[in-house]
Design brief:
single chain, alpha/beta, Rossmann fold, six-stranded mixed sheet, 19 helices, 20 strands
Length: 486
């Protein structure tokens, strides 16, 4: 008996077909990876299962019983839980209140014990139930969202949408162990992620969507990262290898506890632990960090001393930085896509101080072409775009309206599909070929190895340089372990 089955499900949004005759099922205890480009239909099929969307045609069933007139409440009562990349919690309420929001059927006298048991099960036994959700890290908020599913009762089906996007390696291992324990109890798990190693680590089967159609359904044991990358983006091999760029003149120098040098026309990685020193260095160069290690580092730009007191000073010197969290630190949801892209430069692009509907329009269109952006036009709200295209807009802000001297990127391909990664890497390489110094800070070794000409591995106040090559990813990890043990 299948735990959940989709039968010829089609979803149309006007003239756009988001899902096209989708049929697949999961058995109890099965962990299935669901892959596809942004806009491939992954979120649509989740929303159908969750009762948020009604299919144009087709149906789905739980435990061989067709779900009719599905609503989020009715589907939750059937044992289906969805944990989104951005947790659907009320940030101003406590953990306890969020756990029982909309769960009026749970007797009040039993709630404390149920809450403690659910939190303990997901690894949050030490988190106070009266903690305000907005004060928790994203990873913990996702686990609170998961605990809500346990509070609802028997969790038969679990959809996880990008659950590890904001997690480090150890947190990811803990989450995977939890997923496996749910599966052992009969929960069917659908795991959506752009992090292919995570998919291969925990999933037993892979389903790939492309353009709303199911194009692959195979056991994981026969697949590797290359197979998945090629299924998602046939031109993946175009970008796998690249020769180290010839060194131009030194543009940025770092001295003090760390000794690093960055030249024009190259893409250089800063690799380290999740939330590690590499991000401190990036924020220090941009004038965001001034204490601790950041206060002991000295910089030069084009051979002249450079100690930015603020981001404004850095920007004036041509040192631009794109943050890691596009939702909270980058994009403004109340602005259009074009306004978001041109935001720091609008006044300079305006005439006589007037910012109109056509201000910077050609600059935006050029950026859109260079980054292969897809979706509605630039006058649409930024929220109307997929995650990958939002990321392209954020990066474009610091790449095209004004050419940087040094471009600092904080995990620039985090949470985007392989096709969007290709587009981003191509655009960055073109920028480097034009003489820009690009520095990429990340805790993901594959991101560094695929994108950079060379990299510094950083742990605390120690660094080691790793050249580009076929074994770069392995050398990055080995070097990090050596620095940590030193």
């Amino acid at each position: 008996m299948a735990r959940i089955s989709f039968h010829e499900v089609t979803v149309d949004f006007g003239a756009t077909r988001a899902l096209d005759n989708i049929t697949f099922s999961l058995e109890p205890g099965e962990i299935v990876g669901l892959l596809g480009h942004n806009g491939a239909g992954k979120s649509t099929v989740i929303n159908v299962a969750a009762g948020v969307l009604r299919p144009t045609s087709g149906s789905y069933s739980v435990d061989d019983q067709e779900v009719v007139h599905a609503t989020p409440a009715a589907v939750s009562a059937l044992g289906l839980t969805v944990v989104n990349q951005t947790p659907t919690l009320v940030g101003t309420l406590s953990v306890f209140d969020n756990l029982f929001l909309g769960r009026g059927s749970v007797p009040r006298r039993e709630r404390k014990a149920i809450a403690e048991e659910a939190l303990s099960r997901v690894g949050l036994a030490d988190v106070p139930t009266d903690a305000i959700v907005s004060t928790l890290p994203v990873g913990q908020r996702q686990l609170v969202d998961l605990a809500r599913g346990l509070v609802a009762g028997d969790m038969k089906i679990l959809f996880l949408d990008e659950p590890t996007a904001a997690l480090g390696a150890s947190e990811t291992e803990t989450l995977h162990a939890l997923i496996r324990s749910f599966a052992e109890e009969g929960t069917a798990v659908v795991y959506v992620s752009h992090r292919l190693p995570d998919i291969l680590d925990v999933c037993k089967r892979i389903v790939v969507f492309n353009g709303g159609r199911l194009v692959m359904d195979q056991p994981t044991e026969n697949l590797g990262i290359r197979d998945l990358a090629l299924a998602l983006a046939p031109d993946f091999t175009d970008l796998e290898s690249h020769d180290a760029a010839p060194h131009g003149d030194e543009v940025l120098g770092v001295s003090g506890p760390l000794d690093m040098h960055f030249h024009s026309g190259e893409i250089v990685g800063l690799f380290g632990m999740a939330a590690g020193t590499q991000f401190t260095v990036l924020e220090s160069v941009f004038g965001w960090q001034h204490h601790g290690l950041a206060g002991r580092l000295k910089y030069t730009v084009d051979g002249k001393p450079f100690q930015p007191s603020s981001p404004g000073v850095a920007i004036a010197a041509g040192v631009f930085m794109s943050p890691a969290d596009r939702e909270s630190d980058g994009l403004l949801s109340n602005l259009t896509a074009r306004e978001n892209t041109l935001l720091p430069w609008l006044r300079g692009l305006s005439r006589l101080g007037y910012i109109g509907a056509s201000t910077g329009k050609q600059v935006y269109e050029d950026a859109r072409t260079a980054m292969s952006m897809h979706g509605p036009d630039g006058g649409a709200p930024i929220g109307a775009f997929s995650g990958g295209n939002k990321q392209k807009h954020l990066l474009s802000r610091w790449m095209f309206p004004r050419k940087p001297r040094v471009l600092l990127l904080n995990q620039p391909t985090q949470g985007v599909d392989i096709g969007a990664k290709n587009d981003i890497v191509r655009a960055l390489r073109r920028l480097a070929e034009d003489g820009v110094t690009v520095i990429v800070a990340s805790s993901e070794s594959d991101e560094i190895a695929r994108m950079c000409n060379r990299s510094y591995v950083i742990y605390a106040d120690r660094a080691a340089e790793i050249p580009s090559g076929p074994d770069m990813e392995e050398e990055l990890l080995h070097s990090l372990l050596e620095l940590a043990a030193a």
